[in-house]
Specification:
Number of strands: 0
Shape: globular
Structural class: mainly alpha
Radius of gyration: 16 Å
Strand content: under 5%
Largest sheet: none
Distance between the termini: 15 Å
Length: 171
């Protein structure tokens, strides 16, 4: 009976996290932050992915994140932005899992390297699509600096939320 109750609680929390991620992704899609560099976002929807990978592991976080990326991309974006988002998501979640499992790093470090890998992946995709590898020189350093800052911010918020959710989930 207790296992069944935990499965239901986990499913409900996964559904709530996926919904929250979609809402946060929507807000970022309709209220863009324009600082002169295309594609820069704080990444508030990634809080959910970081919490999910920390709380439930890779598989649940992957499904939640993929549902978010596809839903937000299909409803509130265009095809090219969806390609950038999917590519960045797939690489960043793999990198976060690598740092979590193999290197035994915490939420903030995983978030930061997830953000860096997301931005680097998007630069690679842009370079391929535009057949212009000059954009590496133009944007990469700035995107990595922004990723470090936003990754630490998202990781810190995720850590605080994770501790609270974990208390609830374990009760």
């Amino acid at each position: 009976m207790e296992k069944s109750k935990n499965k239901i609680k986990r499913l409900a929390l996964n559904a709530a996290l996926a919904s929250l991620a979609i809402i946060m992704g929507y807000i970022e899609a309709v209220i863009p932050i324009n600082i002169g560099i295309p594609g820069i976002k704080i990444g508030f929807a990634n809080i959910v992915t970081v919490i999910a990978i920390s709380l439930f592991g890779f598989a649940d976080a992957f499904v939640i994140g993929l549902v978010r990326v596809l839903t937000v991309g299909l409803l509130f974006s265009n095809f090219s932005m969806l390609v950038f988002s999917i590519g960045g998501f797939l690489i960043s979640i793999a990198v976060m899992q690598f740092f979590k499992l193999l290197l035994k790093r915490g939420i903030i470090v995983c978030s930061m390297f997830g953000a860096i890998s997301h931005n680097v992946t998007q630069i690679i995709i842009a370079s391929i699509i535009m057949d212009n590898f000059y954009i590496w020189k133009k944007y990469l350093a700035v995107l990595i600096m922004v990723a470090v800052l936003t990754g630490i911010l998202i990781g810190t918020i995720s850590f605080v939320c994770y501790k609270t959710i974990k208390k609830y989930f374990n009760s």
